[in-house]
Design goal:
By secondary structure, the chain is α/β, with parallel strands linked by helices. It contains eight helices and ten strands. Bound molecules: adenosine-5'-diphosphate and magnesium ion (MG). Magnesium ion binds next to helix 1. Keywords: ATP-binding, Nucleotide-binding, Transport.
């Protein structure tokens, strides 16, 4: 079961505490959006889950496994970043297949997997191209393909659509939701965009200044905001 639970999570950078004891429980297969103003701690929470940052206190579990002390590679998660982070000198096929290559999967098996993932993301036909020969949306799909290829239980998205123009952003929201349906995996999606949160989330986690202000469905958050911050941040008509 790919439940995710943040329990009493504290994070400090040097003397500065930036996450002040966050409790967040995510269900298996849920699509949860972390939303809040810039600097509220969204990326830091994801990075601690992925193992890119240590926790200062508290515990993170994926299913029954406490992952807080595990190396990033031993955590059953994959992360998609805003800036794609594709390898410019590698083809689409090699970019998508890279995580398998790193774990020693043979070429034949790799190609089969890459083809499946490319099909899922509508990238068949582009496998021999290089990142510079792709549109922004196509690059984002390659980044997602690289995340999907190892079939992790939990997918993390850190503002993956911020660099795209408005029309493409709306299209990619739909594609990510479709992917969620097909893969039936747990997804955590970070954004500072309230509309994105309201339209995509099963449940929303509203953050401010390193604290969880409210967790609820879009409807609950909209109709019954926990405080004036949530009301003004989310309540503005979309
Ligand atoms: P968000 O993703 O919501 O914009 P972040 O998680 O990136 O916010 O940052 C939360 C807080 O932690 C901010 O005050 C930020 O300046 C601080 N912070 C993040 N990473 C570091 C770091 N490596 N060193 C020092 N401070 C950091
Ligand atoms: Mg961030």
């Amino acid at each position: 079961m790919a439940t995710v639970s943040f329990s009493k999570i504290v994070k400090s950078f040097g003397q500065t505490e930036v996450i002040h004891g966050a409790d967040i429980d995510i269900e298996d297969g849920e699509f949860v959006v972390f939303v809040g103003p810039s600097g509220c701690g969204k990326s830091t929470l994801l990075r601690m889950l992925a193992g890119l940052e240590s926790v200062s206190d508290g515990e993170i579990r994926i299913g029954e496994t406490v992952v807080t002390e595990l190396a990033p590679k031993d955590r059953d998660v994959a992360m998609v970043f805003q800036n794609y982070a594709l390898y410019p000198h590698m083809t689409v096929a090699d970019n998508i297949g890279f995580p398998l290559k790193m774990t020693g999967v043979q070429k034949t098996a790799r190609t089969k997997n890459v083809n499946e993932v490319a099909k899922l993301l509508g990238l068949d036909g582009l496998l021999d191209r290089y990142p510079r020969e792709l549109s922004g949306g196509q690059r984002q799909r390659v980044a997602m393909g690289r995340a999907i290829i190892r079939r992790p239980s939990v997918f993390l998205f850190d503002e993956p659509l911020s660099n795209l123009d408005a029309a493409l952003r709306v299209q990619m929201r739909r594609e990510i939701k479709l992917l969620h349906k097909r893969l039936e995996s747990t997804m955590i999606f970070v954004t500072h965009d309230q509309v994105e949160a309201m339209t995509m989330a099963d449940r929303i986690v509203v953050l401010r200044g390193g604290r969880v202000e409210q967790i609820g469905t879009p409807d609950e958050i909209y109709r019954q905001p926990a405080n004036t911050f949530v009301a003004s941040f989310i309540g503005a008509p979309p």
